[in-house]
Structures are given as structure tokens and as C-alpha cells.
Design goal:
The complex is a heterodimer.
Chain A: E1 11-16, E2 25-30, E3 33-40, E4 43-48, E5 63-69, E6 75-85, E7 92-94, E8 110-116, E9 119-123
Chain B: H1 17-21, H2 37-48, E1 58-59, H3 65-76, E2 80-85, E3 93-97, E4 100-105, E5 107-109, E6 115-117, H4 121-134
Helix pairs in contact in B: 3-4
Classes of the chains: A mainly beta, B alpha+beta.
Chain lengths: ~120, ~140
């Protein structure tokens, strides 16, 4: 999930875990870099707040479920996979993996999130 | 809070993708090795992750926030950060000092992809100094 070089990675405090319920996200500037930490049913996930497309403020866009093919050719709404949509050009990424929904060659940078003593830290 | 007047700044709805794409690398004519170490590290951080070249966040008057925040943290022995819960475009962010929210600050990503906090450097210094003095 992370692109961090483990040998040089440092932890950066981002906030109190109890401030985030499932469905919430926290935008924070950490050492001049903007990151959003998303709280999903699967845990905490962090994305860079600079869209790989053109540097837009990706994580200030809406978070929704996604449309999936149910196997018989019809689309259904899946609210399990959370997707964030860049407010500049509507590029959409999975908040947990950073993967672009339709262009797999584009991945939004992710950061490892650790929870310790009720506090959240990101690593890079 | 009033958005800083900047001639490059427009609402996101007015952004022309082609115009943005045509903008060049901000470091094309810059000797990167002459920049402060923290700045060089961020350039590398962004480049390693394939995202747009690093543009340091700044205040409304163009002052780079790093120098101001770093100076205040050293002088006052505090930690300063900016954050926003469930933020969307146009929302104010919260200024946090030693973990406590002390006020809000307008903020936006400018058309040329800088994050701009909508106070001048002096206004921001005054906000922090006043807050710390009251404690």
C-alpha cells in the first residue's frame, strides 16, 4: 500500500483517532505536504492531496460508493468501495488503494497509517 | 474569510485543463541545489511518487509558510499544523497549536497549483503570537 522507503521513513503525527468515525476523513498539512486520512470500515488509509492528473486538491472532492457490474450486465451501486473524486477534473480513485477506477496506469500515492495510543501517524 | 486577491486564482469551475497542462515545470529555470534542504527533499518526495512538482504552500502575500511556521515553532516552542475534518473545496481549515485548535484560516489550491492560506504572513504571526500570549 505504501510507497515509503522503509529505511528512511519517519512517522508524522496527524491527529486523534477518536475524532474520525467510519466515513470521515481528515485533511492535514504535515511538514509542507497535504495528506488526507480516511476512516473506512477496513481501517485508516491515507492519500496525497495532489491529484496525479494535474495536481488538483483530490481529497477535497466528494467521497461516494462506486458503480459495479453485477455480472449480468447491469450496474449496481456498491457503497463498500469508497471512491474520492477530484474536484478539478473528476478523476476517481479508490480511497483504500489509490487506484484509478478506469485507468489502472494511474495510482494516487498512498501512505501507511499507524494508530498508536489513540493517535494516528502517517509514514514516509 | 475573504479569499486573497490573486490574478491567477479562479474558481475550480473556470479551470481549463489545457491551460493547466501547458504550464511548465516550476523548476525549469531554477538551480534546485540552491534551495533549502527541506525544499529539495519535498521536490524529491513528489517526484518519487509521480505527482505534480512540489510547490510550497504560501500565505496570501506570497510568503512561503514553511519559513514562518518553522520560525514561530522555534521561537515559541510550539507545534503548529493546519487541518480540516471532512473538508471540501472552499472550506476554511483549522490552525492547531500544540494539538489545540486556535482559529480558522481560509485556504485554497490556486489555479497554478499552490496551496494558499488566506492570511498574510504578518497576520498569521499575529494570530499565533496572540494565542500563545493568552495562554
Amino acid at each position: 500500500m505504501t510507497t515509503t522507503d522503509e529505511l528512511s521513513a519517519e512517522e508524522h503525527h496527524v491527529g486523534d483517532a477518536t475524532d474520525l468515525d467510519v466515513g470521515d476523513h481528515l485533511l492535514v498539512e504535515v511538514n509542507d505536504i497535504e495528506i488526507a486520512v480516511y476512516c473506512t470500515k477496513d481501517g485508516y488509509f491515507a492519500l496525497a492531496n495532489y491529484c496525479v492528473h494535474q495536481g488538483g486538491p483530490l481529497c477535497e472532492g466528494p467521497v461516494t460508493g462506486s458503480l459495479t457490474n453485477d455480472g449480468d450486465g447491469s450496474l449496481c451501486y456498491d457503497d463498500e468501495n469508497q471512491v474520492v473524486r477530484c474536484p478539478w477534473h473528476n478523476w476517481e480513485f479508490d480511497v483504500e488503494t489509490g487506484e484509478h477506477l478506469s485507468r489502472p496506469q494511474y495510482n494516487q500515492p498512498t501512505y501507511e497509517v499507524r494508530e498508536r495510543d489513540g493517535e494516528l501517524y502517517v509514514r514516509w | 474569510m475573504t479569499r486573497a486577491a490573486e490574478n491567477e486564482d479562479d474558481t475550480e469551475a473556470e479551470i481549463d485543463p489545457e491551460r493547466i497542462r501547458s504550464r511548465d515545470d516550476p523548476y525549469a529555470d531554477v538551480d534546485v541545489s540552491s534551495l533549502p534542504e527541506w525544499w529539495q527533499q519535498k521536490i524529491e518526495h513528489f517526484r518519487d511518487r509521480g505527482i505534480d512538482p512540489f510547490r510550497p504552500p504560501r500565505f496570501a502575500d506570497g510568503t512561503v509558510t514553511h519559513d514562518v511556521v518553522d520560525g514561530l515553532e522555534t521561537e515559541l516552542e510550539v507545534e503548529i499544523s493546519f487541518r480540516c475534518k471532512n473538508g471540501t473545496v472552499g472550506d476554511d481549515w483549522t490552525v492547531v497549536v500544540d494539538g489545540d485548535p486556535i482559529g480558522s484560516i481560509g485556504r485554497h489550491r490556486s489555479r497554478n497549483r499552490y496551496t494558499v492560506y488566506e492570511l498574510s504572513a504578518d497576520e498569521f504571526r499575529a494570530l499565533i503570537n496572540t494565542t500563545v500570549a493568552e495562554e
